[in-house]
Amino acid sequence: MKVLTKKTDYAIRALLMLGSRRGEYVSAKTISTDQDIPYQFLRGLLQEMIRYDLIVSKEGAQGGFMMKKEPDEIPIAQLIEIFQGKVQVSECMFRKQICANRSRCVLRHEIMRIEQVVNSEFDKVTIGKLLRDLEAANGMAHGCG
Amino acid sequence: MKVLTKKTDYAIRALLMLGSRRGEYVSAKTISTDQDIPYQFLRGLLQEMIRYDLIVSKEGAQGGFMMKKEPDEIPIAQLIEIFQGKVQVSECMFRKQICANRSRCVLRHEIMRIEQVVNSEFDKVTIGKLLRDLEAANGMAHGCG
DNA sequence: ATAACTGATACTATATTGATATCAATTAAA
DNA sequence: TTTAATTGATATCAATATAGTATCAGTTAT
Ligand code: FES
Ligand code: FES
């Protein structure tokens, strides 16, 4: 069970990079090289994030991408939603056969509760928070792993 | 983002059925028809659950499957693990380039925390609990949805 | 003018998920 | 003892999702 797909993972890393260089335009190429993300794949992700108003772009030479939204206002829950779709447990048979399969309903009830827990956890972790964690880690200047 | 795949979903429903008819052998065909699960697909799931000692089988006419483990001792976290693999966030670049990508580490740290929260939630929900919920729901005998 | 860029989109490859098919072995019961 | 109902074990296929590539037109700093 993979919680984060490459898309979400890359998107987060790209945002962390933009977040640490606010006010300047950073090119897709720079991000791609620095974060080791396939160039064209990254381009697609960046365009998607523009559509969601997370970042802005500038075309042409010396162009690139820049944070638009406040890092603290970007929970990774949103990125998961954008790149992996809303967290859903399993489609309900509701429409097909209303409650013919009651056992399914019970399951569904429990799972929706969990879904909320999961979502609220992912909501707590914002790009801003990660950036601060990052700074702290760099400040301490010791290896990790 | 799909939390439960068909496999897990079907497995849970099959177990709920076996759990509500403990002590008797229920055939794959019966489960398949009753729960609307593709027959051969279900067979595979049942065999897998035998390997994990959740259920036992009896071959031949009047054969079928029966609960082995106590329903309260089967958290759906285990079923998710069996049918969808352990919850993992995203593979760490750790081995490739040790901490060259520190931002990834920070992310990883947060995510592993969430992973624990999620797992502990899924651990709380057992087949036994779902069975009791189910009984209660049936006892109340009113529609749901 | 040109090189460094993004916008937009089409395409390919690989992996995962979901489902089906087949045949041998076992067993209850006619 | 035959037969029908069953599981065991695999092989195969189809559909979908994920990951990655390629191309070309348009924009802009130098
Ligand atoms: S790169 Fe993963 S722990 Fe350092
Ligand atoms: S069948 Fe889904 S709510 Fe009743």
> CATH homologous superfamily of chain A - what is it?
Winged helix-like DNA-binding domain superfamily/Winged helix DNA-binding domain
Assess the beta-strand content of chain A as a share of residues.
Answer: 5-15%
Number of domains of chain A: 1
Shape of chain A: globular
Main structural class of chain A: mainly alpha
Number of helices of chain A: 6
Structure explained in plain terms:
Two copies of one chain form a homodimer. Chain A has 145 residues and is mainly alpha-helical. Chain A has a single domain (6-139), classed as Winged helix-like DNA-binding domain superfamily/Winged helix DNA-binding domain (Arc Repressor Mutant, subunit A). Chain A is built from six helices and two strands; from the N terminus they run αααββααα. Chain A has a two-stranded antiparallel sheet. In chain A, strand 1 and strand 2 (64-67) form a beta hairpin. Chain A is globular, with a radius of gyration of 19 Å. At the A-B interface, helix 1, helix 4, helix 5 and helix 6 of A face helix 1, helix 4, helix 5 and helix 6 of B. The complex binds FE2/S2 (inorganic) cluster (2 copies). One FE2/S2 (inorganic) cluster binds next to helix 5 of chain B. The first copy, chain A, binds a DNA duplex (30 and 30 nucleotides) through helix 3.
